[in-house]
Amino acid sequence: MKTPLILAIALLVAVAACAPKAVPPAPVAPPEPPAPAAPSPSDVEQVASDVESIQADLGDTSDIDALDDELAELEQLDVE
After folding, report:
1. How many domains are there within the chain?
2. Residue-range definition of the domain harbouring residue 47
3. pLDDT below 70 — which residues of the chain?
4. Taking the complete model, does pTM exceed 0.70, yes or no?
5. Is 58 domain-assigned?
6. Distance between CA atoms of 61 and 69, rounded to whole angstroms?
């Protein structure tokens, strides 16, 4: 009666020894924030060119001055 019990225990020990072991999951590092995208030199040159163009357009205010004069004349009219 002892022999079958000893064999059963030995079999259980052998099965337990051969069973795959649970591997703990590797720690997950938080993702690194993306690096800020630096504008390429061509983008910077394009923006500088656009700014210069806009400044050149704003430098000529003769149209705005003429409209201001017209508006002042219209405001002086007596509308009733």
Report:
1. 1
2. 40-75
3. 1, 39-41, 60-61, 79-80
4. no
5. yes
6. 12
